[in-house]
Amino acid sequence: MNEFLRLIRKIVRPMGYDLKRHHQYTLHPFKTLQSTASTEALIAAKEAFDLDTPPEHHRKFNTLNICLRTCLRHDRNIDKTDRLTGTNITETAYRCIRSLVKAVNFSLKKHPNLKIKFICLEDHSDQDLVKIIETLLKPLECPWHVITTSTRGQGPSLHEQFTMARESNDSLWYFVEDDYLHQPEAIAEMCEFYEIIYNVTGSHLMIHPQEHENLYKSHYPSYIFAGPHRHWRTTSDATHVFLTHNEVVQTYWDYFENVKHVGNYKKRHLGSEAKTTNNIFKHIPGFSPIPGLACHLQFDFTVAPFFDWRTLWEKNSA
């Protein structure tokens, strides 16, 4: 952008306009909102796109590590009629794992150059249930293996998966739990959208595979993007299930460290998403797909409105 155009840009921006190159996104600021966590995320998203010139070098993301955390034990396997599916934890996990396997294989067919490594990080599950998990993973068309966590517990399991990502090199990571039911196109579309946004902004991002419940509790300001297959919405709320790059984990490790306290009665508040990974949205853009590419099969309020989880549930019965 030459000096004349820079001058014009300075003149029109206070009036709510901006000057961009052809095919560049233009995000306008929200001027009347109070300072909230979501506003900080909006600022981070806007700054990522607020470039005088687009990134010179485009990047292909050809390596994806998927870390599936499981914890299946018979003493937890009781009927949970208050849960969304009305069935037990184990049956829910089986169907969710099947859906994830289908999503991985779909992605490999659509993107033959994508190298996927699949890790099942199981938290001391009962051995007969581990064998069933291994049977469910056998149809995977990529390398996979099952690892037992070093220390029992949800917090140590989270910390261990993020540590693996921190120590890895130049790869996307999808961190997911065994109660997320996936659309077949979920993995492919998240990876595609990640690459698109990175090559427009030069910024890494975080993708949560479904809209968070907070987006429907109050006025939640967002930027909406039209992607190749669906719309995407900026967010500042997610669970510890998301897709990002290992460089994000390395750069913002201080926000990951305290996930080790999840499940610790006295310190669990320190490990909550609000105290840990949601802080990353202050620095890089976060997105959720509309409609969702997955759903958290826990309770009614953890599934975004209008998501047809029942049809997907039946398709993964066996």
Secondary-structure topology with pairs:
Elements: H1 3-12, H2 37-49, E1 63-70, H3 89-110, E2 115-122, H4 127-137, E3 144-148, H5 154-166, E4 172-177, E5 180-182, H6 186-201, E6 206-207, E7 224-226, E8 231-234, E9 242-245, H7 246-251, H8 253-256, E10 286-290, E11 294-296, H9 309-315
Parallel strand pairs: 1-2, 1-4, 2-3, 6-10
Antiparallel strand pairs: 4-9, 5-11, 7-8, 8-10
Summarize the model shown.
Strand 2, helix 4 (127-137) and strand 3 form a beta-alpha-beta unit.
Question: Which keywords apply here?
Answer:
318 residues, alpha/beta, four-stranded mixed beta sheet, globular
Walk me through what this model shows:
- The protein is an alpha/beta fold.
- The protein has 9 helices and 11 strands.
- It has helices at 3-12, 37-49, 89-110, 127-137, 154-166, 186-201, 246-251, 253-256, 309-315; strands at 63-70, 115-122, 144-148, 172-177, 180-182, 206-207, 224-226, 231-234, 242-245, 286-290, 294-296.
- The protein has a 5-stranded mixed beta sheet, sandwiched between helices. Strands 6-10-8-7 form a 4-stranded mixed beta sheet.
- Helix 4 (127-137) links the parallel strand 2 and strand 3.
- Helix 3 runs parallel beside helix 4.
- The protein is globular.
- The termini are far apart.
